Amino acid sequence: MANILLGVSGSIAAYRACDVARELMRQGHRVQVVMTRAATRLISPDTFAALTGNPVTVDVFDEPVAGEIAHIKLAQVSDLVLIAPATAHTIARLTLGLADDMLTTLALATRAPILIAPAMNPTMWSHPATQAHVQTLRARGVEFIDPTYGVMACGDEGWGKIADTPVIVQAVQQRLCRAHDLQGVHVLITAGPTYEPIDPVRFIGNRSSGKMGYALAEAALAHGARVTLITGPTALTPPAGAEVVPVRTALQMYEAVQERFDACDVFIAAAAVADYRPERALRRKHKRTEGDWTIRLVPNPDILASVATRKGQRIVVGFAAETDKALQHAAQKLKRKNLDLIAVNDVLEAGSGFEVDTNRLTLLYADGRVEELPQMSKRACAERVIEAVVERLTPARGE
Prior knowledge:
This protein is of the alpha/beta class.
C-alpha cells in the first residue's frame, strides 16, 4: 500500500478525480486529496473527504492535525504525487516553482515522484508556452500522462481531454513499482568535467556541464537505489538523497572511484574525464611577456578500464562522446573495456552533447543489441539507461 497525494486543480474534469481516487483505494492505496481554490468551485472538498476518509486541504495554512505543518508533513509521507486534472495554469505555476497555494507548495516540498494528467482546451494544450512548460518539467523528472483526443466541455475537439481512469491508475502503479526496483542496489556514478591545472589561473578542461550524470543520479534515486555521485566542477545542484563526492582533477576522480568501486553494484561512468594533463603545473601564473610557451601533456589513468577489469558481477556502463564514426568507436570501446552497456552520442549533432538539456543516445549492449533513442531530455535519456540497468540486474537477482 502506498500513500498517494492526489492534487485536483480547476478543470471541469475535476469530477474524474473521484473515479481515480476510488480506483486507487480499491487497489489498496491510501489517498490524500489536495485541491486548488478553483477546483472547489467545481466539486466540494466534502466529496473527496467522504470518499477517501481523509481531510482535504486547500489553503497552505490548513492544519488538519493540530501542531503539524500540513504542507511539510504531507510532502514527507507521500510516496507519489498525482495531479489529475492539471490545468495549464497549474502546470505553469509548477514550472516556475511558485508556492502560492497548498498544491504547489507541496510539489516543491516533496521528494516523491510527480505524475501529471493534463486537462484543457486543445488550443491551450498545443500552445508553445504550455508545451515549453511540459518540456521543462519533464527535464526535471516530472512525468506526464498525456491527454487524449476528444470533444471538450466547450464543444471544441482535439488533444486535451484527460486520460481515461484506467490509464491514469496504471501509470501510477507502474511508477510505484519503479520506485522500488533498485531497492538495496548501490549505484556509483561519475559526472561532469575534470580540470587539469596548468598554473594557479589556467586549466585544461572541456565543455561538459554534468547534466547527463546528474540526471542519471536522479533517475537511479527515483528507482530506489543508493547513489554515490562523484562529480567534477559543475554549476548544478546535487540531487537530494545522493552521497556527493566533489573532485576537480582526473587523478582525484580516479582515486575516488577506486575507493568506492568495491562497494557498488552498478558503476556508470558519465564524466567527461580529461585524457591528458600537464606534466607539471606551475606554482605561479605564467606571464604573457615570457614569450612562446610549450606545455607537455601526459596521459591520465583510464578510470573505466581500470575498474572494468575487476568488475565481477557488477554492471559497468560507459559513455562515449564522439565526432565521427560514433557507433564504430563505441563498439570498440565496449569490447576493449569489458562493458555491459555503452551510451554513445555525436556531440556535433544539434541538441546532442555538451551544454544542452537534450541528447540523442544510441545504446550498445554487450550481447550485440543496438538501441537508438530519439532526441529527448537528458532526464528522459537517463531514465532509459537506468531501465536498461534494471533489465540487466533482474535475471541476476532471480526476479
